[in-house]
Fold this sequence. Notes:
By secondary structure, the protein is mostly helical. It has helices at residues 2-10, 14-35, 45-67, 71-79, 83-99, 101-111, 113-136, 144-158, 160-170, 178-206, 216-231, 260-268, 271-291, 294-301, 307-310, 312-334, 340-360, 365-423, 438-455.
Amino acid sequence: MVVGSAHMYASLPWWIRELLPIVLLLTVISLVVNRLPKVDVGHSRAFKFRRFLNWFPAGMTYAFLYFARYNLTAYKNAVGMSHDAYGTIDLWGAVVYGLAFIINGPLADRIGGRITLLMGAAGALVANSLMALQAFGGWNPEKTGVFTLLYMVNMYFQSFGAVSIVKVNAAWFHLRERGTFGGIFGILISLGVYFAYDWSPRIAKLFPHPAYVFVVPPIVLAIALIADVFLVKDTPGEAGFDDFDTADASSGDTGERLGLLEIAKKLLSNRVILTIAAVEFCSGFLRNAIMKWYQPYAKGIGISATIVPSNWGMLLCCAGILGGVFAGTLSDQFFGSRRGPVSTILYGGMVVGSAVMYFTLGTMALGWTVVFMSLCVIGVHGMLSGTASMDFGGKKNVGVAVGIIDGFVYLGTALQDLLLKNVLPDGDAQKVASNWRYWPLVMAPFGLLGLFLATRLWNAKPKPGGAH
């Protein structure tokens, strides 16, 4: 019976075999979460169902944006792009993403998250299509410039994603249930990472040309766009339900909308917002130092066929789902919807993980260590960028708040690109595991800094009447 079951499983299409563990994980998590005490803020069953129809298509669009963002890594590995070229392209893309909040955050607050989500998805669709045209002509180092330019365009439109989804959901989730949304946010990030890191390499291998890694994401983005047009609404009122007080920093703020400079000054003088941004700067550095460089490490030392690197996207997805749900549930159920304690606990895991990395270079244990670290950092990201930005920015100014916070995430990403592309081994040197020792050494200070800053948020909760 066992042999027959194994044969049946092996005969399934690859995409079903890939998705099955994730579906099972989501099922188990759903059962566990449903057994926990509920945070009841008075929503009807009809409202909750309509809210699902709102956040699910928007969330899948966000996941597909990840698919259209990290596909660059799969293309790098498929065509043998050098660390220097890859680091340059990714560096400038991250800088554009990090600075785009100056425009995109205020824009989302002015015209609504629904419209900016559509803009972001459409722009990423076009940018990926243009990269596909370049990629079909083959890769050579002389194309670094044009790929950098197109990736910068892609990342500008990608930066609408977090701003838009958090802006939309700020009006649909009460403060006391936003930890749950933080878990959802982590799941969406994780699904996007899974598509990018597992499906993109398979597309590069199974399709006639590696350029198809830039073709498939625009197709799924187009489908998501259509769903968003018909289903996503900025507020419950636009969907036929009553708007309600979300009890965040905008609660009781009924005055006229401030100008951009006044909002920016208000948020940038908020110690909590600045601390969150600084923590997320460290998160951006650490998250991408793990996700973007583990597979090149595995390929370099010759272990690409082992379980962790060959299932990298799926394991990142599972880790991210667990991290997001753990962080969100703990925040709402045990810490009174405070985000700081959970972030501190998870950053402690990051610090321990970076130390373990150094001593496990060249062993199978390193792969499982970075999977655990991914669980921690995605959990933090969901709590702070996805949830605390709503709490302390308030639904009125959340676009600017999440723009500032997520902008710092990608400025951290840009710094890790700048540092790691220059200290990590390339060519024949990458075949020796000990030559990768600077990888965890560079990460460790950012883990310690993030841990210290997270402790400063331990008792932070928003005050009604505007972010202050």
